[in-house]
Amino acid sequence: MKIRTIAILIATLIIGMVLGSLGTGYFVRKKVKNISKRMRNPDHFKEFMMDRMNLSAEQQTAIEPIMDEHFKTRRALRKKHFQDLIENEQKFHKALEPHLEDEQMVFLKRKLERMKRRFWRKKRFKHRRRRRHHRED
User: Fold this and answer.
1) How far apart are CA 105 and CA 77, in angstroms?
2) Vertex 69 angle, CA 67 and 74, to 5°
3) What is the mean pLDDT of residues 19-37?
4) CA-to-CA separations, 97 to 61, 69, 74, 92, 114, in angstroms, rounded
5) DSSP label at residue 18
6) How far apart are alpha carbons 137 and 134 in whole angstroms?
7) Cβ partners under 8 Å of residue 42, min gap 6
8) What is the distance between the alpha carbons of residues 11 and 14, in angstroms, rounded to a whole number?
9) What mean pLDDT is predicted for residues 78-92?
10) Where are the strands (E) in 1-137, listed by range?
């Protein structure tokens, strides 16, 4: 009788932990996706900021050009940062090359190429869905 009760309690605890982690993962992914979308699209960014600040029509008219300029500067900085990141990654690969085997270097080069292709792509994961559906056919 005690063993059965303990087993039920442990099973309930495990089910609760699994459901809690799945639920948390879902909501965190959804929140991060929304934030990412807002920060990459100028229209979403302006809409989000103006909605949060509860601006009047006059304020919106005055602030909109300032926000546009800020977003352009922000995008330029992100692009520059990404180029610096790629250059740093290439230096890292060159430093590792004498110490790694060919197969290991191929892995690193593939990873770098994937990183280069992935940046600033719209609908970044659309190509993955297409491949998966294509394989099923």
Assistant:
1) 30
2) 90
3) 79
4) 55, 42, 35, 9, 19
5) H
6) 5
7) 67, 68, 71
8) 5
9) 85
10) none
Six token digits for residue 47: 């809409």
Do 89 and 112 contact (CB within 8 A), yes or no? yes
Q: What is the pLDDT of residues 59-68, one digit of tens each?
A: 888 888 888 8
The backbone region for 113, taken as left when phi is positive above 0, alpha when psi lies in -120 to 50, beta otherwise, is alpha
Dist CA 39 CA 73 (whole Å): 12
Longest dimension (CA), the chain: 73
79 Cβ contact partners less than 8 Å away, ≥ 6 residues apart: 120
- Does residue 125 sit in helix, strand or coil? coil
Alpha-carbon distance of 73 to 71, in angstroms, equals 5
Question: Residue 121: what pLDDT?
Answer: 52
Distance of alpha carbon 92 from alpha carbon 94, whole angstroms: 5
What b/e readout covers 15-37, taking b as 16+ CB neighbours within 10 angstroms?
eeeeeeeeeeeeeeeeeeeeeee
CA atoms within 13 A on the CB side of 136: 6
